């Protein structure tokens, strides 16, 4: 009886919250939604622009299942609440967006609603895409309509209760979503505004590089301040001008090169970022890449850096460093060099590498266990990769070698324990 009463109380509270959220949502409808479409001066140019925008928005990555037809949907987007499957964006009239018009597409991009008015789950990043202009939305839609039509049914989300109740989206949107296009800052340069527009909008960088709360919402005050990527459990570092944890110490050319090629003289993209570079960022024009780099570097530190946990006692840490030094010489020094400086643009440096010394140890452990694979890009078509050591090294050995590289060549960071390593051993790269 008590359990039933609690369930009823829970549903009653849900109904009240949803009703309040609907009231708030209706009262905050965005007048920009009815912004009319303007016919393009050159239809071919609009389509070409739409292809470019779709690429840098990384649409293909999410809307293409492994081994499936491009943009035909079906890829599972994992969330803490269950899996949501990307929809079919090809112009098939039964299963895709063939019977949509540019107004329908604009509504989805800008307001997070499907053609029939139903609310879209924010796994589709309309919280960022709402910043996109009507002209750019129309260009993307025009290009999508030129794709080969693929008849492939969309899959329903597989969410746990009560998150499978779409009425909850009204509450979520009332808390975490405000439609609105990007507005230029007239006190800034054209390049800065371009970088801000791409970062906040199509780039949807905040979707990964921000801390999310238990309901999947992002506090705008800490956006781009770094955060763990839900479910994937990789750490996306801060994208701001902080010299230690962010991009403040990078050269603009290196930030742009990292996005376009996946490498810099001292670094290489791995994990989820490698997929983003391969499928999206490598297609940026040089001007757009530099604009994004300049904008990011101008941002202040949005939140305090993550804190390190308790360290081992000196004797234990010294023993791990000693054991790790031998393991490093036997397994790592041939590429990363005994000096830890690596080989520029080939093998990343470990000395002075913030990924190595970060208080968030997920990335460095995962790369040692599962390997590090930079993306193949036009600017770096045959990247060097790092083999996985999960099969050849035990948890104790991985902990020792990671602790060593976090404290060699002037690096200074907490020790890593075998328990930390085991936590990520069963979670391979996405």
Automatic annotation (TrEMBL):
**Pfam families recorded for this chain?**
Cytochrom_C
- Annotated Cytochrome c domain ranges read 45-148, 190-300, 319-409
* Source taxon at top rank: Bacteria
- Where does it sit, as one GO cellular component term? membrane
Q: Which PROSITE patterns match?
A: CYTC (PS51007)
Cofactor entry: heme c
What GO molecular-function term can you cite, just one? electron transfer activity
Question: Which positions bind heme c 2?
Answer: 205, 208-209
Transmembrane region(s):
7-26
Name the UniProt key words of this record, in alphabetical order. Electron transport, Heme, Iron, Membrane, Metal-binding, Transmembrane, Transmembrane helix, Transport
Q: Where does heme c 3 bind?
A: 332, 335-336
What detail does the entry give on cofactor binding? Binds 3 heme c groups covalently per subunit.
Q: Which of this chain's residues are annotated to bind heme c 1?
A: 59, 62-63
**What is the protein's name according to its record?**
Cytochrome c
